[in-house]
Amino acid sequence: MILYTIHKAKLTIIAVFFAILPFGCTAIPENTISQDDCSNTGENPQKCPEISRIITEGNIVKMRVKVYNKEGNFNPSLQQSDFSVETISEFGREKTIQPTVILPTDTRAETTFADVIIMLDMSGSMKFEDSSPGRRRIKFKGAIDAINGFIDAVNDKQNLDVRIGLAPFGQGGNEFTVTDKSLDANFYPSDSDKLKEKVEELANQYEELDASTNLYEPLETAVEYLRNSVSDSNNTTNNSQSRQLVVIVLSDGFHNNDRPTEEQQFEILKNILQPQDSEIPKVKVHTLGYGESLKEVYNSSECDIELTEEQLTEDEIIIKDKVIDQIINNCRYPRIRIDQLIVDQPRLKQIADLTGGSHQFPDNAEEVAQSLIKFLESLQEYQLEYEQPEGDRATKHQAKVLVKGLTSNAKNYRITNIGYGTLKPLTRALLTLGALVGFGLIGVFPFIKWSEKLRAER
């Protein structure tokens, strides 16, 4: 009888434990915080603020935030008063917080880490001259100068630790294949002498430029390479990616590998750039189309077809009507194959937009250099810190950042035990007393029953 009573008490305790367990593991529903669609806010829509990383140290929350101007570039001119944070706990309690904001130029700003792969088109058309004012430049040489300027600018930035990889790409002729092995051989810290040597080696391959533009497969390889370089053990904290992963595509052409199946190939690329699994590391792709617009090429050519203004300027129509293929098959350009002049701006825009990247379409070497510097500025981040209200150990929360009427994406996070301050003496004493009383009752209860039973049997 005594053993049965003890056993029953144990089962009761276990049942109570599992009954209350779910209350500490409640999942936060997605989009639980109200959010304006900032991509359509006001008369001049612009890109949403972006929380790129959240970590917690006890109940102190630290996040990295990117904010963009109306041109889609990083906005470095904001102040602390421009920011607020909206949080919601797993129990549904909402709070609005004024965080401490560390500006990118502040000496207190922590180092930003990034891996950047620069993909350079090695097609034959890169030997052509661009539209530089005054003395025209060979596009390939202008691109090399811009890459060197980008590396110098990275090294001049404070609180920026960047590794840069070179990925020349092209199919046919003197082929330039992008593989994990080729990326390993061309990936170095930005201040490494070896990186400058690799750029010089690339510059010396000018005479070998006769490949065609096979863009999608090399881009898939570069993106997967960066994702695979992210190690759970040394590159993430609280499930937040600590190193920015970026690909910069510099091309003067369009994807022309197996052109009849281009749409199917793009769908495969799209699924890689924008995976459904939120745990897959994010890779941002910036695209730079080096050359004239489709309208400019068409107006400078002799064509057997007539195309409307919309067909030459509206991205959706260009893709749907296969305008690029129409121009290739029905237009001619003096002394040059017309396909060597076409930059697929709609696809390059789509690629950037799918990953939250930026796109630029310069037509001369100086603008190429300026575009790369804009991409560099996008590595900068604002650093926000605040104390989480009701931030008890192991509780889950969600946050969004509000910046001048625009609302960021939502990020979930958990308050960790690491770095959590010790309990106050009174709280510690009450918890200890409660534990002693609880365990005392559990231990004494069977013996009280046993004593009562003995008295009843006398």
Helices and strands in order:
Layout: H1 2-20, E1 50-57, E2 60-66, E3 83-89, E4 94-97, E5 100-102, E6 112-121, H2 139-156, E7 160-169, H3 180-184, E8 187-189, H4 193-203, H5 216-229, E9 236-237, E10 240-241, E11 243-251, H6 262-273, E12 284-289, H7 294-299, E13 302-303, H8 309-313, H9 315-320, H10 323-330, E14 331-332, H11 345-355, E15 359-360, H12 365-377, E16 382-387, E17 396-403, E18 406-407, E19 411-414, H13 425-457
Parallel strand pairs: 6-7, 6-11, 11-12, 12-15
Antiparallel strand pairs: 1-2, 2-16, 3-4, 3-17, 5-16, 7-8, 9-10, 13-14, 17-18, 17-19
Helix pairs in contact: 1-13, 2-4, 2-12, 5-6
Polypeptide structure, described:
The structure is a single chain. Mean pLDDT is 84; it is low at 2-7, 13-37 and 232-239. A six-stranded mixed β-sheet has the order 8-7-6-11-12-15, with helices on both faces. Strands 3, 4, 17, 18 and 19 form a five-stranded antiparallel β-sheet that branches. The protein has three domains: 2-23 and 426-457, no CATH class; 31-104 and 382-414, Immunoglobulin-like (Sandwich); 112-291 and 343-377, von Willebrand factor, type A domain (Rossmann fold, 3-Layer(aba) Sandwich), CATH 3.40.50.410. It is built from 13 helices and 19 strands. The radius of gyration is 30 Å and the shape is elongated. By secondary structure, it is of the alpha+beta class.
